[in-house]
């Protein structure tokens, strides 16, 4: 049975309606930057499925990249991004984002974000993998996302034209005759609401929860990619899930990110015997791009038959380490690890979804009335491997453009809101209760094992078979709350990730196929696109074939 267009039943006569000029779905950095670009004369509704402080933006540690010192050059930041990206970046996009970075960062400072400075009152710029220069602005030592979001949330809450609904889950986009007209939003206090918007901006973030090992918070369940796909939007680059090399690996601890900035300050990667191994893999040692470091760590774990490697900071000045990384110091101390003396156990984990909803340079998707920004998108900035600390930057730049574009498009729509004839009838449900949590855990383990840091045709085929089986009985259900909808979204997006990874028969950037380890530019220097089979026609500028998962 094909999976349905809408996850939940609704009828316009039985569902409350809400009208807004612009609807922003997602309250991370991209969503709030978009909100701030909308004309103050227009009404804006921001919906977020948890509270505004629960997003990948909030948890960013390392910082935000930008050319801010006299020693640095736009050309170098551009080239570093292109080198890391495995020949799949869109050069015009890279050029624009890098050149816009200083302006967007200055806006954050105007809104109250305070970045760390050195004794000479200059920005204290850090270094991360793949950057040839110190160009990473950071805050509170290792809690850059927390400080940026504090400032931007406070600024946004004061905008009189903006309403914010927290704990409001977007079940699906409402679309009529291939035009997005808003969304069906659910909250525990109000139930379902049909939110009608002249323009909608999707900024729902990432998909790390598809994997058992991840740096992402529990909210990162690929909802945006799934709802956009069901509404007919094009997705691309979905095989490129970035694995961060250093995620804390202690039984009982959350899988916290251990920022790459540690290696930027001189931390070594050593194996269980204390051997500093990166020289065996790359001349840039610990500061090689992430894809290379993650693969090197997995190889070293295999060689030493040990479940992790270690970060060693014991040769660095202890006071400086404590002051530069207060958050990591505190997290590790809870488990009896003194980061100035003891080695920190780490291994890779899913960190950042490079692929997503295709957007043009202004943040337009392939569905009319729908814009998108941030991690939910594929803008072409990151290619096959994102350069460290370019993601908050992308959220800022594309958030600003998508917000401005949606605002201008909404202003052109003069007629009053029309409630479109949309409904989804309730379906009879099977009696037996599904253990949604059990399937979610099984999916996360499956993805980690078979579609993780290393993949192969056989493993991906096995993963696809299990996902298809689960989708057969989970997909058509009509759940009443977010746990079920999240699972349906995760299964759909997992299926797309696995299909894309199986299709790309080469290794490139973060996508490592053990059965085809070489990069094959002749066949695969191109993107893989996905669109629902009954979706909109494609623009035609992409050379790759389109895959559809559901034929409804
Ligand atoms: C980190 O702090 O290592 C993460 C930064 C990023 O993902 O760009």
What does the model show?
Helices cover 32% and strands 16% of the residues. Helix 3 (74-84) packs across helix 4 (91-110) and helix 12 packs antiparallel against helix 13. The chain folds into three domains: 18-241 and 351-411, FAD/NAD(P)-binding domain (3-Layer(bba) Sandwich), CATH 3.50.50; 247-348, Flavocytochrome C3, Chain A, domain 1 (Alpha-Beta Complex), CATH 3.90.700.10; 436-519, Methane Monooxygenase Hydroxylase, Chain G, domain 1. The termini are close together. It contains 15 helices and 18 strands. Strands 1, 2, 5, 6, 7, 8 and 15 form a seven-stranded mixed β-sheet that branches. A five-stranded mixed β-sheet has the order 16-14-9-17-18, covered by helices on one side. The protein has 552 residues and is α/β, with parallel strands linked by helices. Succinic acid (SIN) is lined by residues 60-62, 257, 259-261, 352, 388-389, 391.
